[in-house]
């Protein structure tokens, strides 16, 4: 059976039905569910719920054992392969979506952390550049913020270790390699890093960007200008002043 043919638009309804069954099954070998119950889960009639189950069985995505009025349904290897294919398609789509940040005035919190000697030395050693002692603050939309956070889950952060001095204890900080560019000059990408401070007074949708130059001057930025945040693996024709 050709997997690519089965993730065609003609099978959209069947994808969703399979997805709902997988949600119900999770780690169980099978689920026991009636056509009425499945129709309700899909927000459809009992007849349509029954038809979806029949279609999935004919496609080979599920196996069904009927015992009187009940039926036991299990996801087949082919069904699991289809779900994996859909996951890969969605992941590739997610990775291709541009994340846009709007330049905004900060509260100088990032600059404070960057200037602390115990952090600054580690930034130089682990990020591959000596950062400007300040950060560029970018405001993300709710959607862009959710996409960014989802992408970062799949990236190993650069850990800046915590330390103590005579006055206080400083916790660890996570950083993520990124490249940023103006929306009107996407090819001129510059290496930078997201500074992910756990204890921050910023609102959730504000991120702080570390880089070697003063980015407002480098990109000729003013509040309200928009930058592309690129965390993809392919970094071609990148500007680097490190």
Describe the structure.
The chain is of the alpha+beta class and 242 residues long. It has two domains: 3-96, Winged helix-like DNA-binding domain superfamily/Winged helix DNA-binding domain (Arc Repressor Mutant, subunit A), CATH 1.10.10.10; 99-239, Elongation Factor Tu (Ef-tu), domain 3, CATH 2.40.30.30. It is built from nine helices and 13 strands. The chain has helices spanning 3-6, 12-25, 35-42, 46-59, 77-96, 109-115, 117-127, 142-152, 215-218; strands at 31-32, 62-67, 70-75, 99-104, 136-140, 158-160, 163-164, 169-170, 173-182, 185-196, 206-210, 226-230, 238-239. The strands form three sheets. The protein has a six-stranded antiparallel β-barrel with strand order 4-5-11-10-9-12. Strands 1-3-2 form a three-stranded antiparallel sheet. Strand 7 and strand 8 form a beta hairpin. Helix 2 (12-25) crosses helix 4 and helix 3 (35-42) packs across helix 4.
Question: How would you briefly describe this protein structure?
Answer:
The protein is of the alpha+beta class and 242 residues long. It folds into two domains: 94 residues, Arc Repressor Mutant, subunit A (Orthogonal Bundle); 141 residues, Elongation Factor Tu (Ef-tu), domain 3. It is built from nine helices and 13 strands.
Could you estimate the helical fraction of the residues in percent?
Answer: 25-40%
The fold-level CATH name of the largest domain is Elongation Factor Tu (Ef-tu), domain 3
User: What's the structural domain tally?
Assistant: 2
Topology as a string of helices (H) and strands (E)? HHEHHEEHEHHEHEEEEEEHEE
The chain-level structural class is: alpha+beta
CATH architecture of the largest domain: Beta Barrel
Radius of gyration: 25 Å
| Termini Cα gap | 51 Å
Average residue pLDDT: 85
Please describe the biggest sheet, giving its number of strands, its sense, and whether it closes into a barrel.
Answer: 6 strands, antiparallel, barrel
Residues in β-strands, percent: 25-35%
Low-confidence stretches: 234-242
The outline comes out as elongated
Strand order of the largest sheet: 4-5-11-10-9-12
Count of DSSP strands = 13
Q: CATH homologous superfamily of the largest domain - what is it?
A: Riboflavin kinase-like
> Any idea of the CATH class of the largest domain?
Mainly Beta
User: Helix tally?
Assistant: 9
């Amino acid at each position: 059976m050709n997997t690519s043919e089965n993730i065609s638009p003609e099978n959209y309804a069947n994808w969703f039905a399979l997805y709902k069954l997988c949600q119900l099954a999770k780690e169980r070998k099978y689920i026991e569910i009636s056509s009425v119950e499945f129709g309700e889960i899909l927000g459809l009639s009992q007849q349509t719920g029954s038809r979806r189950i029949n279609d999935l069985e004919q496609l080979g995505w599920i196996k069904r054992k009927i015992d009187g009025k009940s039926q036991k349904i299990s996801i087949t290897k082919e069904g699991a392969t289809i779900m994996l294919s859909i996951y890969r398609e969605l992941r590739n789509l997610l990775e291709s979506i541009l994340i846009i940040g709007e330049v905004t005035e900060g509260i100088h919190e990032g600059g404070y952390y960057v200037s602390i000697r115990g952090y600054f030395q580690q930034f130089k050693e682990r990020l591959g550049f000596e950062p400007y002692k300040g950060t560029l603050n970018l405001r993300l939309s709710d959607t862009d913020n959710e996409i960014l956070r989802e992408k970062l889950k799949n990236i190993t952060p650069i850990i800046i270790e915590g330390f103590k001095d005579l006055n206080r204890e400083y916790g660890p900080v996570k950083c993520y390699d990124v490249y940023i560019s103006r929306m009107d000059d996407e090819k001129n990408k510059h290496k930078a890093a997201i500074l992910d401070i756990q204890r921050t007074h910023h609102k959730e949708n504000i991120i702080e960007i570390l880089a070697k130059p003063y980015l407002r001057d480098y990109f000729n930025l003013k509040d309200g200008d928009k930058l592309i945040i690129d965390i993809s693996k392919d970094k071609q024709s990148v500007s680097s002043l490190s």
